[in-house]
Amino acid sequence: MKKLIVFLFVGLIAQLIDGSLGMAYGVTSTTLLLTFGIAPAVASASVHLAEVATTAASGISHWKFGNVDRAMVVKLIIPGSVGAFVGACFLSNLPGDLIKPYVSLFLLMLGFYIIYRFLVLNGRAPSASGKQWSNKQLVPLGLVAGFLDATGGGGWGPIATPVLLANRTMEARKVVGTVDTSEFAVALSATIGFAISLGWEQVNWYWVLTLMAGGIIAAPIAAWLVRKLPSHLLGVLVGGLIILTNVRTLLHAWEAPASVYPTVYSLIVIGWAAAVILAVRNGRKGVASKEMAS
């Protein structure tokens, strides 16, 4: 019973973060399953199976609250699904750990840029004449994000969200809602790939159902939060999470001493908190300026 409550809570928290910031459900859930000694392929399969339900609930919620760019979803789901299916089928033979540090370095730089964009530039609204994403850009993004999502148990949101946010043609809430909605097809494709390569008998349905239940409860709450959070604050929250998760990946990849972890994490959290406070202050100044102008 205790494990049931723990996994239900983990599924709820993971989806609350994922649905409001566009990432972390797979990473959080997979990490927990691995700590219980479950094989990486089985853990990833279980998480993706749970995500079929949680991403469906999240996508419907984001759609209802107007957080989705429909054209972008259509462009992302096909390459994302292909990448996820291929990654799932060949997970045991792929050197995912070898390429993760390089991807994390790229995402780490994007995380700092996103905080700069939404903090220093104050998350200005994108202009109508801004250059839109083309298929030539979205196809490789979908392929890579879907592929790494299946091989690493989480990667669609951590890759797609910061890359889309780096382009100033989309609102932050639209990026989060679009990435979460398109993730349904990615999770479904990965699940089919795992079913072919592993078979259903290796999936732990206990983990799947508890993670699924927690995620379904959190999905509409997260979509509502995205609708209500100011764009500049949402951008800083996403940027900080990107930095934290990718620094963690790099520390593990570089086999840093255990004593280094608390110091590094503390510095990141302090800097992140300062950025959030500054973003809130900037938002209040912006509101006050508009009221004076009117």
TrEMBL record:
<feature type="transmembrane region" description="Helical">
    <location>
        <begin position="233"/>
        <end position="254"/>
    </location>
</feature>
<dbReference type="GO" id="GO:0005886">
    <property type="term" value="C:plasma membrane"/>
</dbReference>
<keyword id="KW-1003">Cell membrane</keyword>
<dbReference type="InterPro" id="IPR051598">
    <property type="entry name" value="TSUP/Inactive_protease-like"/>
</dbReference>
<keyword id="KW-1133">Transmembrane helix</keyword>
<feature type="transmembrane region" description="Helical">
    <location>
        <begin position="205"/>
        <end position="226"/>
    </location>
</feature>
<keyword id="KW-0472">Membrane</keyword>
<comment type="similarity">
    <text>Belongs to the 4-toluene sulfonate uptake permease (TSUP) (TC 2.A.102) family.</text>
</comment>
<feature type="transmembrane region" description="Helical">
    <location>
        <begin position="260"/>
        <end position="280"/>
    </location>
</feature>
<feature type="transmembrane region" description="Helical">
    <location>
        <begin position="73"/>
        <end position="93"/>
    </location>
</feature>
<feature type="transmembrane region" description="Helical">
    <location>
        <begin position="32"/>
        <end position="52"/>
    </location>
</feature>
<dbReference type="Pfam" id="PF01925">
    <property type="entry name" value="TauE"/>
</dbReference>
<dbReference type="InterPro" id="IPR002781">
    <property type="entry name" value="TM_pro_TauE-like"/>
</dbReference>
<protein>
    <recommendedName>
        <fullName>Probable membrane transporter protein</fullName>
    </recommendedName>
</protein>
<feature type="transmembrane region" description="Helical">
    <location>
        <begin position="99"/>
        <end position="119"/>
    </location>
</feature>
<keyword id="KW-0812">Transmembrane</keyword>
